[in-house]
Amino acid sequence: MTATPDLGTARLASPDLLRSVFRRHAAGVAVITAAGDSGPVGFTATSLTSVSAEPPIVSFGVGTGASSWPAISESGHVGVHVLGEHQQELAATFAKSGADRFGAPTRWREGPEGVPVLDDVLAWLVCRIVARVPAGDHRIVLAEVVVGDHSGPGRPLVYHQGRFNGLRD
C-alpha cells in the first residue's frame, strides 16, 4: 500500500520538525573519542558517514556546545567506534551530559596517536582530522582513516524513535 503525502499537514522548518523527522530515520550508533587536555572525551553519534574510499575518509557531526567539542576542535586524531547491540548502556552513557564516560564499567585503552579506543566494539578506527566544517550550531568533522579493525563479533546497534535497538532480520 502506498501513501500519498498530505501536503496540508506540512510544517515550516524548525528544530522540532527536524528532530521529529529524524526520529523516524534509523541510524547506526557510533562513539567518537579523542584525547583531551583534562583526559579522554567522547560522545555518541548517529551521524557517522563514509565519505570517500580513496583516500578513506569518514565524517560526523558534533555540536559546538558539546562538552567534547573543545578537545575535538584542537585534536589531530579521533577514535570512531561502531557499537554492537550489546552496548546500549555504553551508547546511553556517552550520550548523557555530565556522565563519567570513561569510568567503570567502560573498558578502554590508549590506542594509536593517544586516542582512547573502546573495548568490545564491532569495529573501530583511528582517524586524522582533515577538516572541521561549520554547519549551524555544529561542525562536520572530516577524518582520514589511519588504522582500524572490523573483526568484533555481534550485530549492530541502531537508533530509532528515540531508542537504542538491535537490528532485526
Helix/strand order, N-terminal first = HEEEEEHEHEEEEEE
H/I helix tally: 3
The unreliable regions are none
CATH superfamily: Electron Transport, Fmn-binding Protein, Chain A
- CATH class, please? Mainly Beta
Percent of residues in beta strands?
A: 35-45%
**Largest sheet: spatial strand order:** 3-2-6-9-10-5-4
CATH topology: Pnp Oxidase, Chain A
Helix % is 10-25%
Description of the molecule:
This is Flavin reductase family protein. Pfam families: Flavin_Reduct. Keywords: Oxidoreductase. The chain has a single domain, classed as Electron Transport, Fmn-binding Protein, Chain A (Pnp Oxidase, Chain A), CATH 2.30.110.10. Helix content is 14%, strand content 44%. The longest helix is centred in the N-terminal third of the chain and has 9 residues.
Which helices and strands appear, and what pairs or packs with what?
Layout: H1 15-23, E1 27-28, E2 30-36, E3 39-45, E4 49-53, E5 56-63, H2 69-74, E6 77-82, H3 88-95, E7 108-110, E8 116-118, E9 123-135, E10 138-149, E11 157-160, E12 163-166
Antiparallel strand pairs: 1-11, 2-3, 2-6, 4-5, 5-10, 6-9, 7-8, 9-10, 11-12
Keywords: Oxidoreductase
Organism: Streptomyces siamensis
Domain Flavin reductase like: 22-166
